[in-house]
Amino acid sequence: MEGALARLLATHAGPGRVDWIGIRPERRAPMQPMERAAVALDGIAGDHARPGKRAVTLLQAEHLPVIAALAQRGAVAPDLLRRNLLISAINLSALNGQTVRVGGAMLRLTGPCAPCSRMEEALGPGGYNAMRGHGGWCAEVLEPGEIMLGDAVLVSA
Fold this sequence. Notes:
157 residues; alpha+beta; M1 Pyruvate Kinase, Domain 3; seven-stranded mixed beta barrel; 34% strand; globular
């Protein structure tokens, strides 16, 4: 049974895709969207990040409508949520603890990225709770490289 479960856990319908890239040059600064980003061991160049297990943050694109519904907003743009990468077409929750190639960089998802109190400012009252369970994922950089919009997100063997 363990072999069958391991196969299920390792099987994805296909690769993910980078839909949005953003950096925050300093604490509380607005996010700056980018078409490409250089990723170093301590995070994305120009980003005010936390080196180590939280060097890069990722958000599931498919969660944007859920967050918008829970915050009772028409839509939510990725820059409001202050994550570096918006990823679609692959379940990031299923990749926790795994290594993924994102464009030219290799990342390891290290755990959930909890929402902060700023979500009340960004999304309005209830924004913090709208993000709970949908706040994205933190990752450490294992191999620097460049990431561009449209790049594939591949599970590393």
